[in-house]
Design brief:
By secondary structure, the protein is of the alpha/beta class. Helices cover 37% and strands 25% of the residues. It contains 21 helices and 24 strands. A hairpin with a 2-residue loop joins β1 and β2. α15 packs across α16.
């Protein structure tokens, strides 16, 4: 029998650029096939070719035996498609979106009640049928998108980064739903920038620069990293400085912070463990070096030639900040909208040179807290301060001392890269030679020269994030607010981004960050876990993981801790009710 999805020597060009080059692969029913690769690798282009929205320049794609170009209507009847960006109508309710997709897919009227009932049960959206789609949390939006893709049960389900911006609980629920579909024999394509998700797939297609560089089970790629991954434990002093030193050590191809430890990956050319251990001990004196199991992410970065770590060129040009009292303070911050309390009595203080993370499920109150501390939202009660300035009485002074990178790309899409840099430099009061020097520095640091005349909305995602960070830091703020700054960004770009952040922290900048990426949350010094508007846990990543230790799970991940603490909070509320 032929596979439900056949990709046959496909090439797709846009102008003179080959987005895909001679790709051949298959995907079978009853399996989840992961589509993985860095930003601009060709993942979305390949999915759009599978839907028939794009035509290949060379080669062909067949779904359920139908050619996507010559048998378009037959292909459409066989697939469910969830695009990368939320593709539903935000000014329609959940039920109205389901009705619309039922009309578009020609679902017979007698079948609708049973179909809607099944999908609402499957996605747990039954209590929200009258809520506008635009008012749903990120996880609920993705569930509604999946429900609309399943209005007519497909033989092939195409999911383009369905979990971007979704909290760990909702991600697990999405995976549970997709596993149920897989068990029904549906062929699932799951495009993702989260490499822990790639590990859950049955097979992986790894793309880079339009070429297929791996096709197989994720474990087959991960196994190549055996005896090449180590954890440095018991580091004396600054673990970020130790990470930088490790990344500058010959033979180390990648490194990240994991709570109080540093995880490093070494290349295949090192001359044995004794030599390696000696060099790593110079980078992190006194640390214990422990071999650990490799992850798919380690193999991914190795396959792409390693990350580009070391010292940050951005931080090198930033003056050392004065050390002293808290830079960012939340004192009993509370925000109500009518009868609904979005945030209640949120209190913490962030000193210079600390990364503080706000975590929580979608709709928990993180963004509300974040916006109050940025001066974008007025608290109902309580006080927020930045660099000593009260946001209620001296908001302009506070804003001049902070940098802000929004969850959604918030620069001016119809302005070029250079025009955005020029505009934000002026907004922050830079002028003359200082302004010109800062703009030139941002262009060089973030490698923006090839895109200077490109409108910002047309940039690849990774370069959008680079430009957004450049605009947020060119005035050398004391406080930096990062709202899901690397959502949807591939690990290579994420490493580059956090290299700059770690460099700024070393200079004394205080960082407040929200993220749904739990490995990224490990980079924080402290974390506040927000749920139902309240702080339910506060401490280091290792402190939170310690709260989830059990006989069944003696070494929980931060994702395990996140879910455990949320569930424990729910149980406590139910017991008190």
């Amino acid at each position: 029998m032929t596979s439900p999805i056949e990709i046959l020597n496909v090439t797709k060009r846009f102008g003179g650029h080959a987005a895909l080059s001679d790709i051949s692969a298959t995907a079978d029913g009853g399996l989840v096939t992961g589509l993985v690769g860095p930003d601009g690798a060709g993942k979305t282009t390949l999915i759009r070719l599978m839907t028939g929205l794009l035509a290949p320049n060379e080669g062909a794609i067949r779904l359920m035996g139908f050619d996507t170009q010559t048998n378009g209507p037959d292909v459409q009847n066989e697939i469910g498609y969830m695009p990368q960006r939320f593709g539903l109508y935000e000014d329609l309710t959940v039920q109205e979106n389901l009705n619309l997709y039922a009309d578009l897919r020609g679902l017979p009227q007698p079948e609708r009640a049973a179909t809607f009932d099944r999908l609402l049960e499957f996605t747990a959206l039954r209590p929200f049928t009258t809520r506008f789609a635009g008012k749903l949390s990120g996880g609920m939006k993705q569930k509604l998108g999946l429900a609309c893709a399943l209005i007519r049960t497909p033989r092939v389900l195409l999911l383009d980064e369905p979990s971007v911006g979704v909290d760990p609980i909702s991600r697990r629920e999405l995976w549970r739903m997709v596993q149920d579909l897989k068990d029904e024999g549906i062929a699932v394509i799951w495009s993702t920038a989260y490499l822990d998700e790639a590990e859950r797939c049955d097979r992986v297609l790894l793309l880079n620069e339009g070429k297929l560089i791996f096709n197989g089970a994720p474990g087959d790629l991960t196994s190549r990293m055996k005896d090449r991954v180590f954890q440095l434990r018991g580091i004396k002093g600054d673990r970020r400085a130790a990470l930088t030193a490790c990344l500058e050590t010959e033979g180390v191809i990648d490194g990240v912070i994991q709570g109080d430890t540093v995880r490093v990956v070494v290349g295949v050319d090192k001359n044995g463990p004794k030599d390696l251990h000696s060099e790593l001990r110079k980078a992190a004196p006194g640390a214990d070096i422990v071999a650990v199991e490799p992850r798919f992410e380690d193999a991914f970065i190795d396959t792409l030639g390693g990350s580009h770590g070391g010292r940050s060129a951005l931080a090198a040009g930033v003056a050392e900040k004065k050390r002293g009292g808290p830079v960012i303070e939340a004192r009993g911050l509370t925000k109500t909208f009518g009868d609904f309390t979005a945030a209640k009595d949120i209190t913490f203080a962030i000193p210079p040179g600390e990364i503080f993370g706000l975590l929580g499920p979608n709709g928990a109150g993180k963004s509300t807290t974040f916006k109050m501390l940025c001066g974008l939202l007025k608290p109902t009660r309580g006080e927020g301060r930045v660099a000593g300035f009260d946001l209620r009485r001296a908001a302009a002074d506070a804003r001049n001392r902070l940098g802000y990178m929004a969850q959604k790309f918030s620069l001016y899409g119809d302005l070029s890269v250079r025009q955005n840099l020029d505009f934000f430099a002026s907004v922050y009061g830079l002028g003359g030679a200082i302004k010109r020097g800062k703009i030139d520095s941002m262009i060089e640091t973030f490698d923006l020269s090839a895109y200077l005349n490109t409108n910002a909305k047309l940039l690849p995602l990774g370069f959008k994030q680079r430009l957004a960070l450049a605009c947020a830091v060119m005035h050398e703020p004391d406080a930096l607010f990062l709202d899901e700054p690397t959502s949807g960004v591939d690990p290579i770009t994420r490493r580059e981004f956090w290299g700059h952040i770690n460099g700024l922290v070393a200079k004394g900048v205080a960082i407040l960050v929200t993220t749904h990426f739990m490995d990224e949350a490990e980079y924080c010094d402290r974390i506040a876990l927000i749920y139902r508007g309240e702080t339910i846990a506060l401490g280091s990543p290792d402190d939170l993981k310690a709260k989830a230790v059990s006989s069944e799970n003696p070494e929980p991940s931060l994702e395990d801790a996140f879910i455990h603490l949320v569930e424990a909070s729910e149980a406590s509320e139910e017991a008190a009710a």
